[in-house]
Design a protein that fits this description.
- By secondary structure, the protein is α+β, with helices and mostly antiparallel strands.
- The protein has one domain: Alpha-Beta Plaits, CATH 3.30.70.
- The protein has helices at residues 14-18, 43-47, and strands at residues 3-5, 24-26, 31-33, 53-55.
- The strands form two sheets. It has a two-stranded antiparallel sheet with strand order 1-4.
- A hairpin with a 4-residue loop joins strand 2 (24-26) and strand 3 (31-33).
- The termini are close together.
Length: 56
């Protein structure tokens, strides 16, 4: 299942710090997930303080 970072992202960086596959990086306005690198573990969704990461 793929994950997406929504507009609720406040660019805190928590998800990028916790991602075990380094699939999350800072974009222009919010963080983005590199789907080729993502292992779909769900860690990012679990640690996001604003619940800005959803399953697609």
């Amino acid at each position: 299942m793929a994950y997406k970072i929504t507009d609720e992202c406040v660019a805190c960086g928590t998800c990028a710090e916790e991602c075990p596959s380094d699939a999350i990086s800072e974009g222009d306005d919010l963080y983005v997930i590199d789907m080729d690198a993502c292992t779909e573990c769900g860690t990012c969704k679990e640690v996001c303080p604003t619940e800005a990461i959803i399953e697609e």
